[in-house]
Hints:
Blueprint: H1 2-24, H2 33-46, H3 56-73, H4 84-100, H5 105-126, H6 131-151, H7 157-168, H8 173-185, H9 192-211, H10 213-216, H11 222-240, H12 249-290
Amino acid sequence: MIGAVLLIANEAQVMSASNELEGALPGLPRGESDAVWKRYRQLRSRSFLRIGTVGLSGDVKNWFISSADDLIADYRSDTPVIRENGWSRAIGLLERAAAITPGDRSIRARMLYCRGHLARIRGEAASSRRPADAQRFFNEATSSFEEAARLKPHWPDPHLGLARTYVYGLVDPEAARKALDRAEENGYEFGNRDVALLGDGYRLRAEKTWSRAPDFRGLPQEGKYLDSVRDDCQQALEHYETIPAYGEVSRNIRKVQELLQKVRARDDEVRAAKLRKAGLGILVPFLGRSS
Length: 291
């Protein structure tokens, strides 16, 4: 009987402490995550009957998810400030939520989404120095975003991650446009950041094609390549010129205009070469008669 009384008294103390923690959770900042986790684990270990912590697990899990969501939500803004450390912090918060309910698909989707951004960031960092590693990171990012979208349908965020990966990783503006369309279908509001992103997609593809100019110089296909560069430049300008004051857009407009000048100059060279060739062809019969 004494043991039973002590056990019940312990559960009452744990319940009181649990209620205190539950009441404090809404006002606690993310920076207190370690303290919250430590206190939660202490209370769980003290509650032998699990009566004193009834309801606490759900509240603590939701607090960790909400704290991670605050970080995740920043990326939906027109001027996101979240960086690699922010995505890592969000994963840490979600891992603790997952430890409480390991089978939660929504938590799993969030973790995959954050890991997708980490892979994307690493791919962008490696793109100029280690192309093979960059491609591996971009493939990892794409897979993570796609799986996150599958686990959490009607969530726009994974499609935003895919759009950025398609632009800065795979240089595919059409795929980025489709990803942004999916995000809009799921409630996302298209903003200046997205217009600039698509402009970057067309600009980067134009620059990539132009970098291969020596490979097709003088070949019959050269005109097609020049047209491709010109078309992508025009598409980039159409996007940029709607938001000239946003971010790096004004600088990127100048870059596109400079590339267009190079294309025009090469067009003039090709045209002049054709005229010289045509003129020589006309003169050949006369040269033959004079000889």
